[in-house]
Every structure is written in structure tokens, then in C-alpha cells.
Structure prediction request, 63 residues.
Amino acid sequence: MIGIVPESLEGFSELNLYKEDEFSLEERSEHEDLPFFEFNLTETIQKIADQIIEIIKEIMNKV
Prediction:
């Protein structure tokens, strides 16, 4: 698990379920890989997350 600490929680006033109208709670329980909440990443965090994903892919290809 990799966690990223935000610089600020400004703008986060409520949590919304990920694709709330598309998945029931039962479907969410059956598909543990689905995110539970929607989230929006800042441009900076999105770039870093993309870089981390690429690094992990490179490592997995070498294993």
C-alpha cells in the first residue's frame, strides 16, 4: 500500500461513493478492487502517482 499525504484538505467538503449510481453495495463488496469513494487528485499528485505506477510496472517486469 502506498499513501500520499495531501498538502491541504481544502476543497474536500464531502465524500461521494465511486460511481454511486452504477454499483450496489453488494457489488462493491464482491469487487474489492473498486475504489469506495470518488477522489480528485491535484495535478501535482496525479503526476507523481503516474510516475509511481510506471516505476512499479518496471519493477514487476524485471521480477
User: Anything to note?
Assistant: Helices lie at 25-30, 43-62. The CA atoms of residues 24 and 30 lie 10 Å apart. The first helix runs from residue 25 to 30.
